[in-house]
Amino acid sequence: MRTVLSKFGCVRRDAPSDRIIPRQPAVASGLMSWLPDDFVHPVYVPVPDTALHLRPIREADTALDYPAVMGSQERLWEIFGPAWGWPNETMTYEEDRIDLLRHEREIAAHQSFNYALLNEEETALLGCVYIDPPERTGSDAEVCWWVVDNLAGSEVERALDVLVPQWITADWPFQQPRYLGRDITWQDWLALPRTS
User: Fold this and answer.
1) What residues contact 33, with CB distance under 8 A and at least 6 apart?
2) pTM of this structure
3) 177: which strand partners?
4) If pLDDT is split at 50, 70 and 90, which confidence band does 196 have?
């Protein structure tokens, strides 16, 4: 294992290769060239001015993720539904578990990344940050995030809004990241040509 400290104090390490489970990518892209071979993804990212942090999501987080998602389902559907068809109102706990397992495997394989926003004790999941290969032309990564309903418009959401672009610039090897729902509307993003 290799560890380094980024300017955000993020401990980063190589994912053990024995945990990489091959799968078909969820997005059409040249995934093998998406990230440098020696890139190591951050595994702990503190959110400044809060007691929260980001870390890669795991299947084991389902008990925290499911109530967070379904408790904010209507608003999340308005944001992500047209693009991703997620989260539908009938999503079950088991479907969420399978989805988180897929995310965990994609992270291990460096195909795409889902970071959970957690409290210090990791007893509550309060949102997520997604970092994906581009589905649409004009960027080399697509980044978006959400918080649960009771944090929408809060200081926590504003702290995340400030952190994410700074973190991506500092710790990720992208030249043209696109922030969906921030620097482009989801509707305008959907109108862009697909990468392939």
Assistant:
1) none
2) 0.84
3) 141
4) confident
Give the SS3 label for residue 164: helix
Angle of helix 93-108 relative to helix 62-71, nearest 10 degrees? 120
- AA identity, residue 84: W
Q: What is the pLDDT of residues 136-169, one digit of tens each?
A: 999 999 999 999 999 999 999 999 999 999 999 9
Q: Give me 6's structure tokens.
A: 């980024």
CA distance to 53, 56, 143, 157, 162, per residue, from 6 (Å): 15, 16, 19, 23, 17
Single out the residue of 126, 66, 130 nearest to residue 96, CA to CA. Answer: 66
Paired sense of beta strands 45-46 and 52-56, if any: antiparallel
Cβ–Cβ < 8 Å for 53, 45: yes
The amino acid sitting at 32 is: M
- Mean pLDDT of the region 75-80: 97
Render pLDDT for 27-48 as a digit per residue (tens, 0 to 9).
Answer: 333 434 689 999 999 999 999 9
Q: Are the CB atoms for 127 and 49 separated by under 8 Å?
A: no
CA 179 from centroid of its chain's CA atoms: 12
C-alpha to C-alpha distance for 165 and 163, rounded to whole angstroms: 6
Residues 179-183 have a mean pLDDT of 95
